[in-house]
Amino acid sequence: MNQQVAAARPSAPPAPRAVSPRELAGEFLGSALLASVVIGSGIMAARLSPADVGLQLLQNAFATALGLAVLIVVFQPISGAHFNPVVTLADAATGGRPWRAVAPYALVQSLGCIAGAVLADLMFGEPAVRWSTTDRAIPSNLLAEVVATAGLVLVILVLVRTGRAALAAPAVGAYIGAAYYFTASTSFANPAITIGRMFSDTFAGIAPSSAPAYIAAQLVGGAIGIALAAWLIPAHKSTR
To answer: Which long-range contacts (CB under 8 A, 24 or more apart) does 153-157 make?
Structure first.
């Protein structure tokens, strides 16, 4: 009888899986390399084309698009290749990752971007840490960050919810490369990279006084992207 009663009881849900050190290492390394690509290519572009800002932006955007796509391919099987706290929040909000993963992911992503900024500075003979003096927090740029981040989250979630996550690397790389040009802010779209860019007073830098407004705009954009994806691809159609 006791065995029958025990069998009739619903089994307890499995405990949430802890975030593994390997996943955190993947996010740290991927974020560091992404920051190195963004900042390093910006420094190189400024040196190669000192009199042509348009060409500098093209070189920076092209390198970032290619580098980001490669990094997603490499780290997607390890950590999901977020490299972005907003993407991690979106993943948790749509059930792809436990909420307990958000804080540690965001921490290592931010630390990775800081490390990548320092590495880029050192590779080009710049001071390891020099606060950026580029003020960017004007209304048009903040609106652009909302748009850029909403679009990024929308691209990722629609691909995931329609079973095409394998296309994330080329799609995200292409989107960010294009967003360098169609947004006034040149599409930071990432709180961690925003933090990292504060540490380099170079082409891709952002003044610490501008960073909080950028991060707030990115969080707003992320929420909009989540809402749009949920409306366009309802949960019952998700292939997750």
So the answer is: 153/86, 153/87, 153/90, 153/221, 153/222, 153/224, 153/225, 153/226, 153/229, 154/225, 154/228, 154/229, 154/232, 156/87, 156/90, 157/90, 157/94, 157/225, 157/226, 157/229, 157/233
- Right CATH number for 21-237 from 1.20.1740.10, 2.130.10.10, 3.40.50.970, 1.20.1080.10? 1.20.1080.10
What pLDDT score does 13 carry? 47
pLDDT at residue 4 is higher than 50: no
The domain spans of the chain are 21-237
The 10s digit of each residue's pLDDT in 155-195 is 999 999 999 999 999 999 999 999 999 999 999 999 999 99
